[in-house]
Amino acid sequence: EIVMTQSPATLSVSPGERATLSCRASQSVSSNLVWYQQKPGQAPRLLIYGASTRATGIPARFSGSGSGTEFTLTISSLQSEDFAVYYCQQYNNWPLTFGGGTKVEIK
Amino acid sequence: QVQLQESGPGLVKPSETLSLTCAVSSYSISSGLYWGWIRQSPGKGLEWIGSIHHSGRTYINPSLKSRVTISVDTSKNQFSLKLSSVTAADTAVYYCARRDGINWFDPWGQGTLVTVSS
Question: Rounded CA gap, A17 and A98, in Å?
């Protein structure tokens, strides 16, 4: 199974600043990667698919990049509603696997 | 827009079978997509359990395959999960979701907490 590793585990950022989250795959997943956002008490919400395509209704401040084994989610200017946990998921191979998450907290 | 709602017992005894149902509204399960179960526990994070097509074809996580049954009832527009021989390690929030695109999930149900305890 492909192991997805996210870093850092926690990221402390001030509102208005840029946040850069990383996701690494144990083997190439091509561009078959998505990012989700999860707020406390809620289900994950799709942000990015195909490594870099924003899902419907997702603000332009969210961007994804990367391919192969290294991926990045960037939030260009953090808003109060962006403080949450972010997960990556690969869909290149069965079984589908998720990263352990990065918590973005207010600095 | 499509909505999913999980239902089932919130407490299951060790060695028994966990049974959950996901009711889908505003979208027909028979429209051709896959539908999935994912769980989230503090110890293991998010874990894909398995996915099912309206035809009944399933893909199950090999780590759970011996204990998991996923089925679909198109007449009721719902699909179900059974996990047998549960232990405390199966305590988690269980989500159902629609598989979108190639193989990701959108949207998700609100999730239901299942605790395994005697």
Answer: 26
